Amino acid sequence: MNATACGRSTEPGNACSSRSRPRPTQPGRSTGTSRSTPPSCGRISTPPVRAPIRRRRPRGGGGARGESSGRSRGGFTTKIHLSADGRCRPLSLIVTPGQRADCTQFRPVLEKIRVPRTGPSRPRRRPAGLAADKAYSNGPCREYLRRRGIRHTILEKTDSQAARLRKGSRGGRPPGFDEERYKKRNTAERAINRLKHSRAVATLTA
């Protein structure tokens, strides 16, 4: 940016100046002074104004989106969806905002299971059996398990059971339920309790 200043040059740059000389006045016209001093002019260069540098955050880090923070009744919360084996060891894990429903992550959690085998063979991806909470007691979840051939024990919801009984014979048979296998469902809760000891883990358990 270039600026024009009148007077002496106060900053480095090209400047020009000339001495004042008297100019003859025209007859019948008075300027009020006999001498006129034209000002010296010079061009002064000023440094350009730089915009503030904004640092970009890395992908997946910082902010509510990167930390999977969502709004719920308790404020900003985070929910962990996981599957665990009989020894309370997590097999797959997905982190979502707190307002995300559990049943929406049922299929992604099961598809992330990878259990390594001994020797040069592919890891196991299908569990032998599954016990889940009644939050996953809906038609799409049960159909997905039947299609993959996974034996499952899921507690039926009270409203679903009442709707089935109202339909009579059209409601179909009740889903199978194994009480002994359902007792092992606490392995997932115990696995989440272990993760709670980490300060960087924000959980919401129902």
TrEMBL record:
<feature type="compositionally biased region" description="Basic and acidic residues">
    <location>
        <begin position="176"/>
        <end position="192"/>
    </location>
</feature>
<protein>
    <recommendedName>
        <fullName>Transposase IS4-like domain-containing protein</fullName>
    </recommendedName>
</protein>
<dbReference type="GO" id="GO:0006313">
    <property type="term" value="P:DNA transposition"/>
</dbReference>
<dbReference type="GO" id="GO:0004803">
    <property type="term" value="F:transposase activity"/>
</dbReference>
<dbReference type="Pfam" id="PF01609">
    <property type="entry name" value="DDE_Tnp_1"/>
</dbReference>
<feature type="region of interest" description="Disordered">
    <location>
        <begin position="1"/>
        <end position="81"/>
    </location>
</feature>
<feature type="domain" description="Transposase IS4-like">
    <location>
        <begin position="61"/>
        <end position="197"/>
    </location>
</feature>
<feature type="compositionally biased region" description="Low complexity">
    <location>
        <begin position="66"/>
        <end position="75"/>
    </location>
</feature>
<dbReference type="InterPro" id="IPR002559">
    <property type="entry name" value="Transposase_11"/>
</dbReference>
<feature type="compositionally biased region" description="Low complexity">
    <location>
        <begin position="27"/>
        <end position="40"/>
    </location>
</feature>
<feature type="region of interest" description="Disordered">
    <location>
        <begin position="161"/>
        <end position="192"/>
    </location>
</feature>
<dbReference type="GO" id="GO:0003677">
    <property type="term" value="F:DNA binding"/>
</dbReference>
